[in-house]
Structure formats: structure tokens, C-alpha cells
Specification:
This protein is mostly helical and 275 residues long. The protein has one domain. Strand 1 and strand 2 form a beta hairpin. It starts with a helix and ends in a 34-residue tail after the last helix.
């Protein structure tokens, strides 16, 4: 592979990895949100570094990763309206478990924001339980394994050069590091963005469950829907930030019409001279 081909491969793969990493970044912001601010940023940095480590580790055992596509067991096809038997591979099982975890996580977080945690009246009470730092890191690790699997499979399918894949992953993590704080701040300051992000979590979980059952879902449609929703929500936030102002009328500048008080403040009635 020439240097030009290597550069094109790195840029193409980096772009794809950044797009695939955006949902990971949103999940990272949601999971770390209950933590205190000083621990939140630390957990996000650990999460991104763990994501890089997980990707490199999976890349090192790529041969084992490819064997995950071989069926481990089968179920009768009539359960899925198919002929014969429906096999489940290791990769499909990981996607199924990960998808169920994301759906549970999204539904539980939405329930807490609307109804408050169980046994409390409202989600913003002073007695709201704060998850431990260790439990947050465990959740981040599970998310990293899930998204790293999809990321590495995509990378290996696109580029056959190991150095190009490693370079793309390093650049991707650096880009996500740069955007992690703005994304976290936006999710923290705007409750509607939190609901939108949690809806994305449920959507991604549902897609992973479908892929776990062997039903391919075109990612382009998913990312287009997510991007369109973000644009609409951004327009809503912009419109809410602008306060309505009363219309200010200026004195008419017509010949023969002179205001009695030319230095009057805007909005005062204009008096016309007697004929």
C-alpha cells in the first residue's frame, strides 16, 4: 500500500469511526451525568481511553473476532418465520445482550426523569441516589466492549492495513476527547437534549437487537434520522433562547410632518403640528 493509499484509508476510516463514535460519546455523557463535576470529567477520560484500549485489544485478536460469526447454536426456524434452523453466533449474542442493556438503560433513565427514582417524589430531590464511581466505570466498560466490537469489525472490513486502522483509532479518540466536554455540557444544561439522547439510546438498542436476530439495518437511515432530530432540537433551543421584544416604531420621516419632541424616546406617540 502506497503512502497516498494509506493516507486516504486513514482519513476515510477516521471519518467513519468518528461518526460511529458520536453515539458512544452521547452515552458517555449520559452515564457520567449523575457524578459530581470533578469525577464526571475523570470518568469520561477513563471511558475514552478504555474505548481505545478495547479497540486495540479486539484488533489484536481479530482472527478470533472473525470466528464469532460462526453459529454456536440454532433454534427452530418457525420461531422466526424461516425455513430450517436459525443459528446464533457469538457476535449476535453480544449484540443481543448489548441491545437489551441499552433499551433497559434508556427506559429506566426516562422513567426516573419523568417520575423520579422509586420511593421518591420527583427526580430532582436532594435525596436522589448518586451511583458510585466504580459502577459508572463498569457501565462504561460494557458500552465500550459493545461499540468497540462493531467499530473493529467495520474497520477490518474497510481497510486491511493494521497501521492504518491503529492510526485512525488514535485520531478518532483524540477527536472524541476534544468534543467530550461540549457534548457533556450541552446534555447537562438542556433537559430536552437529555430526553433526545435517551431516545437515541433506545433506538440504538432496538437496532442492535434486530441485528442480533440476523436482521440487517441500514445504518445510513438511522444516522440520518438522528441527525435530523438533532437539527430540529437545535432550532427549538435557538427559538427559546430569543426573548420576544415589542416592536419599536420610529417617527415618520415625511415632509411637513414634524414631531413635537424630536428627542422623544422610541415608542412615544408622534404629535403632528396643527394646520
Amino acid at each position: 500500500m502506497s503512502w497516498t493509499e494509506l493516507l486516504v484509508a486513514v482519513l476515510s476510516l477516521t471519518t467513519l469511526e468518528v461518526v460511529l463514535g458520536i453515539d458512544n460519546l452521547v452515552l458517555l455523557a449520559l452515564i457520567t451525568q449523575p457524578l459530581p463535576k470533578e469525577k464526571r470529567e475523570k470518568a469520561q477520560r477513563i471511558g475514552l481511553l478504555a474505548a481505545l484500549g478495547t479497540r486495540l485489544l479486539l484488533l489484536a485478536v481479530v482472527s478470533l473476532l472473525m470466528r464469532l460469526n460462526e453459529p454456536l447454536f440454532s433454534l427452530p426456524g418457525w420461531l422466526f418465520r424461516e425455513e430450517g434452523e436459525h443459528g446464533f453466533s457469538g457476535k449476535q449474542l453480544i449484540l443481543l445482550v448489548g441491545g437489551l442493556f441499552l433499551v433497559y438503560k434508556g427506559v429506566r433513565e426516562i422513567h426516573e426523569k419523568l417520575e423520579g427514582p422509586e420511593g421518591q417524589h420527583g427526580s430532582g430531590g436532594p435525596n436522589k441516589a448518586v451511583p458510585s464511581f466504580a459502577w459508572v466505570i463498569v457501565q462504561i466498560a460494557l458500552i465500550d466492549i459493545l461499540f468497540s466490537l462493531d467499530s473493529v469489525v467495520t474497520a477490518v472490513g474497510m481497510v486491511q492495513s493494521f497501521p492504518a486502522i491503529v492510526a485512525a483509532m488514535l485520531i478518532t479518540v483524540a477527536v472524541l476527547f476534544f468534543f467530550s466536554r461540549p457534548v457533556s455540557r450541552a446534555v447537562e444544561n438542556h433537559p430536552t437534549l437529555q430526553m433526545l439522547a435517551l431516545s437515541f439510546v433506545i433506538l440504538i438498542g432496538a437496532v442492535l437487537i434486530m441485528e442480533g436476530f440476523g436482521k440487517h439495518v441500514e445504518k445510513g437511515f438511522i444516522y440520518f434520522a438522528m441527525g435530523f432530530s438533532v437539527v430540529v432540537e437545535a432550532l427549538n433551543l435557538i427559538s427559546k433562547s430569543r426573548k420576544s421584544r415589542p416592536v419599536e416604531l420610529r417617527p415618520p420621516q415625511l415632509p411637513g410632518l414634524v414631531a413635537d419632541e424630536p428627542e422623544a424616546l422610541p415608542g412615544e406617540p408622534v404629535r403632528y403640528p396643527a394646520p
